[in-house]
Structures are given as structure tokens and as C-alpha cells.
Specification:
Blueprint (H helix, E strand, L loop, with lengths): L7 E6 L4 E8 L2 E9 L11 H23 L8 E7 L3 H18 L3 E5 H7 L14 E6 L4 E8 L2 E7 L5 H11 L7 H8 L22 H17 L3 H32 L3 E5 L6 H14 L2 E3 L11 H12 L17
Parallel strand pairs: 1-4, 4-5, 6-9, 9-10
Antiparallel strand pairs: 1-2, 2-3, 6-7, 7-8
The protein binds 5'-O-[(R)-(carboxyoxy)(hydroxy)phosphoryl]adenosine (KG4) and zinc ion (ZN).
């Protein structure tokens, strides 16, 4: 039998504030390097202009490190995969231009990847976990997106529901900001919530039609609630931080969880896979694990390394596209609002 030559993909992700590069040998990750941009912490959110400048500084050393860690020489690469969108245009342009130039210089194919597809297909990266079976429901919970997606094959993804306003991660970050927590606030809320009572404070669940969700009204309700209580007691937040975090986290999760339940009833699909930064949240992970036992669902939780933005997830989509020769063109450009 003739052994098939392995495929080596260099993947590049620069859609927001993480400059990332990974090398994959087929579906196996050989290296996964991320340079986080700490500069945004001082502003309590991502400053697009600063993000693109930092990508410009980071991209060469990050790619260099990814190749070295993988033990791969540039000339052994089979293709370059890059995030075309969605994301911040100035950030995407850095990764896109770099990927195009390198693919031209090495004379190897260029593969465009949708960032959202990357989050959901990260479950197909080779590890000890079983991969999802088609069709499954992909749940993207990140700083920029909140989506319920029917995934019928690697390339057939249909959005069933989305947020009508803010993303769940954005709601975590904005609520954390008003409580004086650092950026991004999601992991801080997660940590404090472990010590608090999720039933201490009751917040409303905003209504949204069908399988859509809404988060902006919730954020306003939290801000008003905090201001009202601070007027009576200026140390209200410090004295109740753990309970506040636990109650806020509980409600943010409940909003999406209700729609996941409804999506399962509606489609009859009981296998789900979550992706995106908020997939690292311990409250959400535990809730889904419990639901798997209670309702007999099959739930896939990504390893922590593949929850927040990374290039390995771009590489796995690149690998599937390489196998089907779905290559991109050199005149393609970064696209800030790229649908699934
Ligand atoms: O997927 P991601 O890295 O970037 C986007 O594509 O948006 O997600 C970043 C988001 C941020 O809003 C961050 O606060 C949130 O993921 N996040 C978390 C946790 N870790 C990251 N939210 C809640 N709990 C966490 N443990
Ligand atoms: Zn993301």
C-alpha cells in the first residue's frame, strides 16, 4: 500500500486582539502559538488601531516560533490557511497580507477560513476526545458572536439563531467593567462566581423571538441595579462581588441555555458542540455536563487551548479544505462581516 504524504498546514489567525499561528500535520496540532495583546487592558476593551499595530509587530516572531516548535521548515509546508473574517478589518488585513505573501513566496496554495467555522470545527482536532457526529448543533459563544448553528458536514453550516444585539462574551466583559474587573472580564467573573451564590440576586431574562437571544437589555439592567445599590451603599460591589458574579453568570448562561434546549426540541438533534471564548466558562461547562446526563444529550466541550481565539482551529478547517482542494485566490481580501 502506498502511504499518503502528510499535509502540513501553517495557519494564521489575527481577527481581533490575539496574534496566533499554528502548524498542523493533517488533523494533529504540532504547535499552537498565541501572542496576547495586553495593551488593551488599560482601555477596558480592544482598541482596533492598536490591535492592528500589535499584529504587525507580532506576526513574524509568532509564525517563526510556530514553525520552530513544530520542527518544520517553511519549504515543507503544503499550504497556508488564514482567517479571512469576520473580525476587525485592520487586524484581519495583517494576517491576510502576510498569508498571501508567504503563499506566493513559497508557491503553495492559500486557504481562506471563516473564523466562526474555525471555532466550531476545532472539535475535529485530533486528541483523546471523540469527534462530533453529523448533524450536530454548534453553539458559538464568544466576545463577538453568539450563534446556534446546524452543522450537517464540515462545509454545511446553517445559522438557526443568533444574538440580536450584544454577544455573550461582550455582556460578560461589560458587566465586569462596571464592577471594576480587568479586561477581558469573563475569566474574572468565572473565578469570583465559584465563591458566590447564583440565586443571591435575580436579573430578568430578556425575551427574543425563536432561537435568537438578546443581551444588551440585561447589561443595562445590571448597570442600573448596581448604581441604585451603590447610592445606598458605596461599597455594595466590593461587599457582594462573589454573589454578583455568580448571579450575573447564572443569568447570562440561562439566556443561551434556554435557546439551546429549544433548538434541541425543535431539530431533534441531541448532539451539541460549543466553541468560542465563553466555552471556557466553568458555569456553562458544568451546566451542559449536567444537562447531558439529565436529558441524555451528547455534549462536546473543547479543550481550553481551543476555546479563546487560536490558529489551530483555523488550521483544522484549512486541512479539510486542502483535502477537497478548496483553495483561495490571491485577489481575495479580508472581510470584516463574513457570514458563515
Ligand atoms: O473567542 P474569543 O477569544 O474572541 C472572539 O472571537 O470574540 O472570545 C473572547 C471572549 C471574551 O469576551 C472573554 O471575556 C470571554 O471570551 N471569556 C470568558 C471566559 N474566558 C474567556 N467568558 C466567561 N468565562 C470564561 N472563563
Ligand atoms: Zn473567536
Amino acid at each position: 500500500m502506498i502511504e499518503q504524504k502528510p499535509c502540513y498546514i501553517l495557519a494564521i489567525e489575527s481577527s481581533c486582539d490575539d496574534t496566533a499561528a499554528a502548524v498542523l500535520k493533517n488533523d494533529l496540532v504540532l504547535s499552537n502559538i498565541i501572542a496576547n495583546q495586553t495593551i488593551h487592558e488599560a482601555y477596558g476593551g480592544v482598541v482596533p488601531e492598536l490591535a492592528s499595530r500589535a499584529h504587525q509587530q507580532n506576526i513574524v516572531p509568532v509564525v517563526d516560533q510556530a514553525l520552530k516548535k513544530a520542527g518544520i521548515d517553511k519549504k515543507d509546508l503544503s499550504a497556508i490557511a488564514y482567517t479571512r473574517g469576520p473580525g476587525l478589518l485592520g487586524s484581519l488585513l495583517v494576517g491576510t497580507s502576510f498569508a498571501k505573501s508567504l503563499s506566493m513566496a513559497l508557491n503553495i496554495p492559500l486557504i481562506e477560513v471563516n473564523h466562526l467555522q474555525g471555532h466550531l470545527l476545532s472539535h475535529f482536532i485530533q486528541d483523546e476526545h471523540p469527534t462530533p457526529n453529523f448533524p450536530f448543533l454548534g453553539i458559538t459563544v464568544s466576545g463577538g458572536h453568539t450563534q446556534i448553528v446546524r452543522v450537517s458536514s464540515h462545509f454545511s453550516l446553517e445559522e438557526l439563531g443568533t444574538t440580536l444585539d450584544d454577544a455573550i462574551g461582550e455582556a460578560f466583559d461589560k458587566c465586569g467593567k462596571v464592577m471594576g474587573l480587568g479586561y477581558p472580564a469573563g475569566p474574572h467573573i468565572d473565578r469570583h462566581a465559584k465563591e458566590g451564590n447564583p440565586a443571591a440576586f435575580k436579573f430578568p431574562i430578556p425575551k427574543a423571538p425563536e432561537l435568537n437571544v438578546s443581551y444588551s437589555g440585561f447589561k443595562t439592567a445590571v448597570i442600573n441595579f448596581l448604581h441604585k445599590n451603590q447610592q445606598k451603599n458605596p461599597s455594595f460591589i466590593e461587599e457582594n462581588l462573589a454573589d454578583l458574579c455568580a448571579s450575573i453568570q447564572y443569568t447570562l448562561i440561562e439566556i443561551i441555555f434556554e435557546k439551546i434546549k429549544r433548538a434541541i426540541e425543535h431539530t431533534g438533534i441531541t448532539e451539541i458542540a460549543i466553541g468560542g471564548g465563553v466555552a471556557a466558562n466553568s458555569g456553562l461547562r458544568n451546566k451542559l455536563k449536567d444537562a447531558a446526563t439529565k436529558y441524555n444529550w451528547r455534549v462536546h466541550l473543547p479543550p481550553f487551548a481551543y476555546t479563546t481565539d487560536n490558529a489551530a482551529m483555523i488550521g483544522i478547517v484549512g486541512y479539510f479544505k486542502f483535502n477537497e482542494q478548496r483553495f483561495g485566490a490571491l485577489d481575495q481580501s479580508a472581510t470584516a462581516r463574513l457570514p458563515l
